[in-house]
Amino acid sequence: MAQPASFTRAVCAGAFALFATPAFAHHPGGASNTGGAGPIVTISASTLEAGHGAVAFLYEYISFGGLGDRDLIDAAGKHIHAHSIGTIQSTSASFAYGITDDFTISARIPWVNRTDIREGHHAHIAGVVNNTVDYRGDSKGLGDLTVLGQWRFLNNRATRTEAAFLFGVKAPTGSTNRFDQLGELFEAEFQPGSGSWDVLAGAAFTQRFGAWSFDTNVLGVIVGRGTQDTKLGDRFLYNAAVSYRLVGYAPPEQRAGLPSSALAHGAVPHRHEHPLDKIPAPPQWIVDAVLELNGEWHDYETVAGVRGVNSGGHVLLLSPGLRIARGGFSGYASFGIPIVNEMNGLQSKTGYRLFTGIAYAF
Questions:
Q1: In sequence order, which residues have a C-beta less than 8 Å from that of residue 43 and are 6 or more positions away?
Q2: Which of 30, 56, 77, 101 has the fewest Cβ atoms surrounding its Cβ within 10 A?
Q3: Cα 245-250-254 angle, rounded to 5 deg
């Protein structure tokens, strides 16, 4: 028999975007939705049906710019401890499972690579002031595990409205002992893992109408104190997405096996089986066009209680994307460019972000 509409509508919707958290302040943090269009990075309120799951492999690439060697040298001459970073690259494995029709639990573990880390250096050699740039290299390793629960408390099928609470934790599973090419321990902000336990809480909302879908979510991250007595700064993530099913849209009444006129007069699908009911429907191609706003506010970090003035900030990305799916498989990509790029103090700024992945729902 063909899969029930409740499952096909919610295949991986938001299951992996839960952890596509932007790394705007230098600390990085969906699969197919076969019944209606859905977002890629924004968290949908849809959940997996009980007993069904999904796996995904995700890749996030963030390019930074804005600080050259001359900027770092000038800052060092003013006794400002500034650094620059080239990219943050994160390759992640994710898994999601429907505990009930309205409660999904998801987990994500990343491999993080921060590249081209440079730092201004101020020294006095034989009485002569010397301002230079230290080329510290890359920092890579296993990142922190994030586990998030999603409880859908509203699921109005008539209006196609959904709402869910989000709650979870980030565990300190990542590496915190990486050294640079000069033989010095990288600061906490450059380590693949934070060494801290963090608490996550938020909410998501979804409204579908025809082949369109509107999704929005907020997610707060309360950051604990981690390695090197460092608190990397609390975060507030907010997202909104408009999606449109270009190929493969079927109205809810067609998926239920009844014409619109029958449903309008209160008819319900009959429940007795026909022999053809046992023949699975052939998979079809699904194509969604997505336009998102992905924002993050990041608080200052503190080291031993001292606030770092060159940390934290606020970035908002405009992110068009595309999802292509067939059966349980899907692939998707989103390209984000900053329309707000306000960093505290002297920091590299986000140039662009690429987020892509493949997923399988079962």
A1: 14, 17, 18, 150, 166, 202, 204, 215, 217, 219, 239
A2: 77
A3: 165
Give the separation between CA 186 and CA 176, rounded to whole angstroms: 8
Distance from C-alpha of 96 to C-alpha of 52, rounded to nearest angstrom: 9
Closest CA to 98 of 19, 30, 15, 216: 15
Q: Tell me the two tokens of residue 167.
A: 């709650």
Which residues make beta-bridge pairs with 114?
Answer: 88, 139
Q: Helices then strands (H, E): number in the chain? A: 4, 17
Residue 326 · residue 292 · CB < 8 Å? no
Beta partners for 73?
none
**Number of residues assigned to the chain:** 362
Cβ-in-10-Å burial (0-12, 13-18, 19+) of 324 comes to middle
Question: What would the mean pLDDT of 131-155 be, rounded to a whole number?
Answer: 94
Scanning the structure block, which residue is given the tokens 């007595």? Answer: 229
Model confidence over 40-58: pLDDT tens digits?
999 999 999 999 999 999 9
Which pTM value belongs to this model? 0.85
Q: Is 324 or 36 the better-scoring residue by pLDDT?
A: 324
Provide the residue type at 303 as one letter. V
C-alpha to C-alpha distance for 50 and 317, rounded to whole angstroms: 34
Which CA distances in Å does 294 have to 134, 171, 182, 221, 316? Answer: 33, 24, 36, 16, 6
Residue 139 tokens read as 């920092």
